[in-house]
Amino acid sequence: MARDEDSFREWRRRWGRLPFPWLFEDMDRMVEEMFREMAESIPKELTRERKLPDGSVVREYGPFVYGYSMTIGPDRKPVIREFGNVRPSSRPTPFGRPRPALEPRSEREPLTDIIEEKDAIRVVAELPGVEKQDIKLHAAEKALTISVETPTRKYYKEVDLPSKVDAKSAKATYKNGVLEVTLKKEEEKREPKGERIGID
């Protein structure tokens, strides 16, 4: 039997000692349902069981990572970027009102920073625990996709770029778990407005 089930039974046993245990039956059911929903929502890749020397089995979950970074953009407004493999979401309830929840994913979104320079855009992403050959990059006119899939680590991030770039100009380096991609900005073609006039 897994240890998390044992801990839940211990919790229920303690509540049962109260003078009016019937008052807590509904709460008991709600907590049991919450534990069950939480266990069902965790991806299989983030769940493992381990046998202890005494023969009991302990169930482990994770890793769960959530964080955010805040920088000041070129327009002097704050830019907040989330990272990790847990996202806030909402779940429907039998009463029709959604309830706040956390949605874990098997792939982690890396912490990224976008630095806009005069002629280029640099994207810096933290990808610890992977090798250079595991990283797949795909550049488009206004987006950069970073993906990694190994038996132990999964990362995925679609980065929206602030300006159009020349995807063929991309250069990337990876050192000490930090990926840096530099993309040259696409030169703006200045065409006169209006209709072109032919000369006789």
Q: Would you mind describing this structure in some detail?
A:
The chain is an alpha+beta fold. The chain has two domains: 3-61, no CATH class; 66-184, Immunoglobulin-like (Sandwich). 16% of the residues lie in helices and 42% in strands. The chain has helices at 3-16, 25-41; strands at residues 47-51, 57-61, 66-72, 78-91, 99-109, 112-116, 120-126, 135-139, 143-149, 154-160, 171-175, 178-184. A four-stranded antiparallel beta sheet has the order 6-7-12-11, with no helix packed on it. A three-stranded antiparallel beta sheet has the order 3-4-5, with no helix packed on it. Strands 8-9-10 form a three-stranded antiparallel beta sheet, with no helix packed on it. The mean pLDDT is 79.
Q: Report the mean per-residue pLDDT as an integer.
A: 79
Assigned CATH class of the largest domain: Mainly Beta
Question: How would you sum up the major sheet?
Answer: 4 strands, antiparallel
Indicate the low-confidence ranges by residue numbers: none
Q: What is the tally of beta strands?
A: 12
The structure class reads alpha+beta
- SSE string, helices as H and strands as E: HHEEEEEEEEEEEE
Shape category: elongated
Query: Architecture of the largest domain in CATH?
Result: Sandwich
CATH topology of the largest domain: Immunoglobulin-like
Arrangement of strands in the largest sheet: 6-7-12-11
- Beta-strand residue percentage: 35-45%
* Number of contiguous helices: 2
Question: How many domain modules?
Answer: 2
What percent of the residues sit in helical stretches (DSSP H or I)? 10-25%
